[in-house]
Amino acid sequence: MSSPQLPPGTHVPVLVGSLPGRQQSSQFLPPPPPPEDVAEANNHYRRPRPVMATGYGTSDAALPPTGQTGKLPHEALTEHSALLGHADTHGDLSAEEAGSTRRLLKELGSLSRLASPVVMAFLLQKSIDITSVFSLGHLGAQELAASALGTMFIAVTGWSVALGMATALDTLASQAYTASPDPRMLGIYLQRAILVLMLMAVPIAGLWWYADSVLVMLGQEPELSALSGLFIRWSMFSLVPYVGFECIKRYLQAQGIMHAGTYILMITSPLNVLTNYLLVWWPPISLGFIGAPIATSCTHWLNLLLGVLFVRYVDGSRCWGGWSREALRDWGPFIRLGLAGVAFVCGEWWAFEVVALAAGYLGTVPLAAQSIILTTASFTYMIPAGVSIAACNRIGNELGLRHANRAKLAAYSALLLALIISTFNTTFLILLKDRWGYLFNSDPEVVALVGTLLPIAALFQVGDVFGGVGGGILRGIGQQHIGAYLTIVSYYFISLPLGLYLTFSLDMGLAGLWWGLCLALFIVAIGEVRVIMRADWQEEVERCATRISGDASATVYDEEAYIA
Which of 1, 114, 222, 481 has a CA-to-CA distance to 60 between 20 and 30 Å? Predict the structure, then answer.
């Protein structure tokens, strides 16, 4: 296949520096532009570019991907020609074609295929924390309570904040992958994400170090707080690898590589079970209580190591151009999107923890029923969570390609998939409401209460699924702040006060708390769907172009900026 020729006078900035052992060559590139031509070169890179079959939005002037010296993207990367789920990525669809049933069903299938490995990865990753609680539960009731309290503290103060800030990478990476003149811009965003999240990890680690004192201040028993604090301090070793692995997953997902996290977790999750057994129970090396957080930390470090090796040796390296000082610049867009994401994610996460704490005041049976229902809701949410990741990256890629109608089609298909999932989840819970509780507990009172509350939890699924998928669509277009506003208003100004009033003033018990959660989720879901249905997709394309081209390092690369 012959390569298209560069237009006369076109200059291409040369990227130097890479991971060790990576090939770099500029023999196929013209010399860098002299200083007086930089403005002209910038204008060239900002012009709309013909779309290649790879899914990149690269022009004929694009750099050869790293490790594919001398080849243009559409020659070197044909293995990803169906990245966006359709082979004919030569241009946008017409409004009529985008609205056809055939296109809708085709897009539905593409989203389902992209989401399935992500759902599996979520389930496997959730098993890592659950394994620690199970392994310590056999040491005694105090150890079980301490590990459960410690796990909740870690999730509320650490994981929720990190995942919220990482939503900025969801938006920027998926859009930059197809909108930037050079796909290696994605690597710059990865580096920025790592740097920002590592800086955030410093105050989080400080909070974790003094967690026992914080828990006592919150009214927990001193003995339980001390044991939980020990669990949390040893979990500090998980903070860096957890953040790093989350960033790498998003870097790969933006390229359409959805299966990487699944493959890695299929290796590390079983090893986590084994490591927990060895460090908690096996006499020769048993460490007792602290063995569980140490085992979990080892698992997170292994996740990070395998993630790096996957990028280096398996797939995803074409978007890595080496460590660069460019990553130290232009943090503003990332931080703005990230803080909105923190409010979005933490707002909902913390509200559920408030409900869990409130349930503790109702007695042992309601608390047990709350644990069962919340665990059930967490697992059923894994499906829409996977769809939200797929939809976010799908829409971001299409906006980067300036495909307004394809982005709209992807969003509407995701909402249709949400309808299918919510119908399935609701039907499943209603049919099994009288028997579901026995999977977790044999106490007749607990099982009866679970059966009474599951119809509410079934209705809850509709709002939960649409809210989760809608949130993914908003991340894809870079509108996290809308989800943040909806979440804060619906939970903290409406549903939590109402739920607490129904529970403790009207004596509705646990049902009052769950009716409050239902209301919040429906408000969020309706608000998100309304925003999506009223979106001007051509305007979103222009916002995407402005967001990416406005980044100085997205247009001209300084070869002296690359340091490794």
Answer: 114
pLDDT, tens only, 118-138: 999 999 998 898 888 888 887
3-state SS of 205-251 is HHHHHCHHHHHHHCCCCHHHHHHHHHHHHHHHHHHHHHHHHHHHHHH
406 assigned to some structural domain? yes
| SS3 per-residue string spanning 353-422 | HHHHHHHHHHCHHHHHHHHHHHHHHHHHCHHHHHHHHHHHHHHHHHHHCCCHHHHHHHHHHHHHHHHHHH
Domain that holds residue 328: 103-549
Cα-only R_g, the chain:
25
The tokens describing 133, both together, are 């609680």
* pLDDT band, residue 91 (cuts 50/70/90): confident
Does a structural domain hold residue 562?
Answer: no
| pTM of the predicted model as reported, rounded to 2 decimal places | 0.81
Tokens of residue 548, six digits: 């990416």
Q: Is the pLDDT of residue 83 over 50?
A: no
Q: Give me the pLDDT at residue 475, please.
A: 96
Per-position b or e across 200-211, b if 16+ CB within 10 A of its CB: bbeebeeebeeb
Higher pLDDT, 45 or 381: 381
Q: Is residue 64 part of a domain?
A: no
Amino acid at site 172? L
Tokens 């130290």 sit on residue: 328
DSSP 8-state secondary structure symbol assigned to residue 19: S
Angle, in degrees to the nearest 10, between helices 291-309 and 222-234: 30
User: What does residue 427 show for φ and ψ, rounded to 5 degrees?
Assistant: -60, -45
What would the two tokens of residue 497 be? 């006060």
Q: Are 237 and 294 in contact (CB under 8 A)?
A: yes
- The pLDDT assigned to 562 comes to 62
Report yes or no on 73 lying in a domain.
no
Quick one: pLDDT at residue 456? 95
Q: Distance between CA atoms of 520 and 517, rounded to whole angstroms? A: 5
- Whole-number mean pLDDT of the chain? 83
Q: How many CA atoms lie within 13 A of 5 on its CB side?
A: 3
CA-wise closest residue to 170 among 475, 435, 495: 475
